[in-house]
Design a protein that fits this description.
The protein is an alpha/beta fold. The chain is 23% helix and 27% strand. A hairpin with a 2-residue loop joins strand 28 and strand 29.
């Protein structure tokens, strides 16, 4: 990938979703292999990945496979064997976290730095480039100036800068959360996070006073950088990544289409930029991120720290407001819509907040439009007496629109590449030459004697129409040109065969013209690591990883948290999110406020969920929060 190219990078839980991501405009897709991916239940066979690779390469789209867990010593050899299998299947790159992989016999496949490598500084980014990583995904918490500072120290022809633009947000710096392992033995760094950040907590201050009750204070809204794409391009981002290897087909179709349209607008404005794959995508629907599951949206820290980044009331999907309850009966409700044009459907998912601000789901079994405009009679799937605080005047949101679901269940996009088609005469008959927009050429020959058409005046028009019928292929005709000395009649079966062979020829030429992404060579002598000592936060879990860091000048190397050598209280999570700031208890917020300045201090807070207790400590200089606890004894 070149520095003037933009890449839309979509997730895939399985190969079929990956194929639809390609159809909906993805320049690249990332997917889990049979093992060692940081999503434990999103594994795929080598055969399925090879099928996805074959389809993606038709458009010169790329397939990246996640091999991004930290590995035990006994897992390095199976990981090496898997890497070679993936290379043989045609995979374009592996996304890795464990630096031990750089010290074993890996195939000559391009390597990308996973989000788990926690890239927040120019020094770390430059080091990973110099160590041989060709694409690096930056921490989601970075601001535009911080991204620009990283761009300024790396060689953008050698290393692509990648950034998450959409999807669920881990509250911790990626790779810096150990709560799941401490409490359950399930390691987030090994693909099995228990998602403690989505739980409700009671928050107590240093004096034991409750300052928040049953709030999801570690749960973030979902990432949405739709309004920041141009600024991110200017800051140096070239790969725009959508989160979601657990997400369903409808999510991937919709969100990929949404960002394809936005990036195409940028490309149209900026002729010096180009997409990294080929083809134009058309959609049978209007993409809308609000239609998929989301916890409402935030652009997180890209434009600086904001107060409204948390989804503290619920980790569920609150949906979009559509109206209010005007009547409640024993078997149905009546709802008056805010917009008279709103249509409700059988199977729609609705919800509302009860008096404790808990989100209550209300699935509709049957929806009946009433004579009064905007009024609907709704019969819920569940008994009416089970709905807490359901009463007249309550605002209702819709978080699943069945009409939308049905639209995306069908074919919803086409991706085609434009070609020029030239039909010319040869000594033995006819030749059809097909050329795509980047110069690949295919041709086919038909041995045939000239025959006079019955209607010479219409013959050329008929030939052009027949040749241009590219149907279910990946191509569409830009122009069909006839270079004939006289009108020809060609039997339809022979003309169709000529066209099919030409299409197959250009498909083969395009595959032959797709260059394998080169494996970057690390600099020699080895670049020094930015620090000379590493704590458990560096996630070093095997001897080869220790050897790697030692080779790069690190003197002290502690074992990963998963080695269970850190038995006392340590930081189980480090995050840019600050509970004090979100609750207006930050000393910086109080600075200059008369009567308050100096009285608010960054004292620790305590989080309590059942028997689990965690301490929040605040490091105000870098503006970070540490969630502190210790590993549970599970013997």
């Amino acid at each position: 990938m070149h520095s003037h190219q933009l890449e839309l990078l979509a997730p895939a839980r399985d190969a079929d979703i990956g194929i639809e991501a390609i159809h909906h405009g993805a320049d690249a897709v990332y997917i889990g292999g049979p093992s060692f991916g940081a999503r434990s239940t999103a594994d795929n066979s080598i055969q399925d990945i090879a099928r996805l690779v074959q389809h993606a390469h038709r458009f010169h789209s790329r397939i990246f496979v996640t091999l991004n867990t930290i590995l035990r010593d006994d897992e390095l050899e199976p990981a090496r064997q898997l890497a070679w299998q993936l290379y043989d299947a045609g995979v374009d790159a592996l996304i890795i976290q464990d630096m031990g992989l750089l010290k074993i016999d890996m195939p000559p496949i391009q390597l990308h730095a996973s989000t788990q490598t926690d890239i927040r500084t120019p020094e770390k980014a430059r080091f990973l480039q110099d160590a041989g990583l060709s694409q690096i995904v930056l921490a989601r918490e970075l601001t535009l100036p911080q991204i620009s500072a990283i761009r300024d120290v790396i060689d953008t022809e050698r290393t692509v800068i990648e950034f998450f633009v959409h999807g669920a947000l881990c509250v911790a710096y990626s790779g810096q959360c150990f709560i799941s392992h401490a409490h359950t033995g399930r390691s987030a760094n090994r693909g099995d996070c228990s998602q403690a950040c989505r739980l409700p907590y009671e928050v107590k201050d240093a004096q034991g006073r409750i300052i928040a009750h049953e709030k999801h204070v570690l749960s973030m809204k979902d990432n949405n950088q739709s309004d920041n794409l141009r600024a991110l391009v200017d800051a140096g981002i070239r790969s725009f990544k959508i989160e979601g290897r657990y997400k369903d087909m409808a999510y991937v179709k919709n969100i990929t289409a949404h960002y394809r349209k936005l990036l195409d607008e940028v490309l149209n404005e900026r002729p010096e930029l180009a997409p990294s794959s080929h083809g134009r995508t058309t959609f049978s629907f209007t993409p809308d991120p609000n239609q998929n599951f989301n916890r409402e949206f935030t652009d997180y820290f890209v434009q600086g720290r904001k107060e409204d980044i948390g989804a503290f009331d619920t980790p569920k999907n609150p949906g979009q407001p559509i109206g209010w309850i005007s009547r409640v009966t024993s078997d149905h409700i009546e709802l008056t819509t805010d917009d008279m044009a709103t249509v409700l459907h059988n199977g729609d998912g609705l919800c509302y907040y009860d008096l404790q601000k808990e989100l209550v789901g209300l699935q509709i079994n049957r929806a009946e439009q009433q004579k009064t405009p905007g009024v609907w009679r709704l019969f819920p799937k569940d008994p009416m007496d089970g709905f807490k605080d359901l009463r007249k005047g309550v605002q209702v949101n819709r978080n699943r629109d069945m009409q939308w679901v049905r639209t995306l269940d069908k074919k919803s996009a086409e991706r085609r590449m434009g070609v020029w088609m030239d039909l010319s005469e040869t000594d033995t008959g006819l030749q059809l030459t097909v050329t795509d927009e980047v110069g690949h050429t295919g041709s086919s020959h038909l041995v045939i004697n000239w025959q006079s058409p019955k209607e010479p005046a219409l013959a050329n028009e008929k030939l052009q129409a027949a040749l241009g019928k590219l149907g279910e292929t990946a191509f569409e005709p830009l122009q069909v040109q006839l270079k004939l000395s006289r009108p020809w009649f060609v039997p339809p079966s022979q003309l169709n065969a000529l066209r099919r062979e030409a299409v197959l020829s250009i498909e083969n030429a395009r595959l032959a013209g797709l260059q394998r992404l080169p494996r970057a060579k690390p600099v020699d002598p080895p670049a020094p690591y930015p620090e000379d000592s590493l704590s458990y936060l560096a996630n070093v879990f095997n001897q080869k990883a220790r050897d790697f860091y030692a080779e790069h000048g690190v003197k002290v190397i502690d074992a990963a948290y998963e080695a269970q050598e850190e038995l006392g209280e340590v930081s189980l999570m480090i995050t840019k999110h600050c509970v004090r700031f979100s609750m207006s208890l930050c000393p910086k917020q109080a600075k200059g406020v008369t009567g308050v300045q100096g009285t608010v201090k960054a004292e620790p807070l305590q989080l309590i969920n059942g028997k689990e207790k965690l301490t929040l400590r605040f490091d105000c200089k870098p503006c970070e929060m540490h969630v502190v606890g210790k590993i549970k004894n599970r013997c």
